[in-house]
Amino acid sequence: MVVSVLEIINLIAFIAVFGYGVYLAAKVVYARYTYVRLGKPADFSKDMKARLHQVWVNVFGQRKILKDPKSGIMHVVMFYGFIIIQFGAIDLIIKGLFPGKHLPLPAYPVFVLIQEITVFAVLLATAYSFHRRYVEKLARLKRGFKAGLVVIFLSVLMTSILFSAGFEHVWGVTELPAWATPVSTVIAAAFSWMSPDAAAMMFYIFWWIHTLDLLAFMVYVPQSKHFHLLVAPINVFLKRQDPPSKLKPIDFEDESLTEYGVNKIENFNQNQLVDLYACVECGRCTNVCPASGTGKMLSPMDLLVKMRDHLTEKGAAITSRSPWMPAYAFSGANAATEVAAAREEDGSYDYPVELIGDVITEEELWACTTCRNCEDACPVSNEHVDKIIDMRRHLVLTQGKMPAEATRTFQNIERQGNPWGISKKEREKWRDGLEEGVEAPTVKERKDFEYLLFVGSMGSYDNRSQKVIHALVKLLNHAGVKFAILGKKEKNSGDTARRMGNEFLFQQLAMDNIAQFQKYNVKKIVTADPHAYNVFKNEYPDFGLEGVEVVHHTQLLARLIEEGRLKPAKEVKERVTYHDSCYLGRYNEEYDAPRAILRSIPGIELVEMERNRENGMCCGAGGGMMWLEEQSGVRVNTARTEQALAVSPSLIGSACPYCLTMMSDGAKAKEVEDDVKTMDVAEVLAQSIDFGEKPAPVAEEIH
Asked: What is this structure's pTM?
């Protein structure tokens, strides 16, 4: 009878504690849900099949997590361990509430064996996570009480499971075979001297430790960085299906807009705000960031964390929902709700803390090269670049605040169509340097062209980039490709203006260029500029460019080699390391074409840098940084050049005029320009072609 009363008391206590824990956790989750709802609506309807595939690959397949094999394996153990252990938790709760009972599963001993092995594996993974953070002291991982709290929670959780099972053996209420409980049997053997009643008491002590720890962990998770346990799978599913970091146009005809860009956290869309709560604070983004790695102010992880904390504080003020539970346990937990947050006409809120300036500094925003290495490294599919550009837009278009070099660049592009401000009349002057017999006709001179060669501002005005265009034109002539150029009618692609936040100037350039493309019935565009390639292919369609195939010059050259239109024959004795352009690689997943060209050239020895392909480091020129002076830390291009020199090349290859300039400058800074050449892939290929041979016959179309 006493046992029955104790069981009833235990059951009532469990229901009360469990109900309170679920209530607190639900309030925390719902509060943060209301904060996200403050953002602008986002379209989540596109391509459900692709979304489910992303979840399968990146959540269940843990693909991005496994880019770092050590922490990846540890995380896989924890991820699947937690899924498996949930069933064990239910089983343990049943055992504590109804002694001698368990989950009615077939092959129950096998289930218990899997549970014990999993619990032990998770315990080892937890110990390793402690080692990585506090012993190995990885720079990208934060240390301190909050960072270590989850280790305590997990250690107690796993240990209490094993000890509960061990004392259950001593108590004598289980008849499981020893092979099914290899770990708890050892624990039971150590306490075999105990009486059954004492063992029963110890079982319930550890059972309650487990229960309270589990509920405390459940309440703690949504108000910590570990909220990613719930949000990350959702974030992966909701990830935009547009091309990577494609920017959303501003509707300048919308008279309801009182400001452009974003300076209020609620003016981001809900998808962008989900990113903030999905952040794991693993530091992988900051670890690969070229700005952070060279001593600049920007840390992509800190950027998201600061924005997340700001959203939580402002969200609490707007909704009057405390972000912390239980609120009485947190000093000043409700302070944020006491701040006035009046609703404004545009739907945003008047709040005394400014996003730009008080939360995120201008220096951080102008340090980003938009390379997307942070996004590629992020295991939960967070997107950093569009948020940075949105805030740059506010600085440029609403506040009129930008570096002096940016102002000059915008003025030059607006007046002359190029960043230097050189006369637009000189845009086709580069043709004067072509060899005799090599032609680069304009669209007026050749009306039956197949490809429009978009030369770009670098190819038109920069002396070094002109040599690349000369080599490309010579190759296209030899292969019999019918192409033409816009000549003086060509303008800057607008990528520089858009990434620097001047959306208005970009849209003017886009519309002007599209008008020229349509006027001359352009169906195919080839360019040696990955930035122009990306913006034509992925962003101009928003402004009316339709039915136009856009290719990068390396893609076309690789195709010509494959079709036998270009035949590398001359030996080029060089040890080449290829530097991946961010806008060709991470933005458009083209890594193979440039390498295929290099491998086709006799005598070339291709060696890879440690950071290559999707993890290749930025040259430092992207996002308009080509036109801004680096004010702090080591120059990004110097750091990247050092990585190239580490593999002892005789030639650093590239496929982007910006990259070529930055790597050339890096070689000069390291004083190795006489020993290590910097060349575009097209220039290297041109050295291997016997132009004295009869050119390949002209085909009507290249397939």
From this structure: 0.89
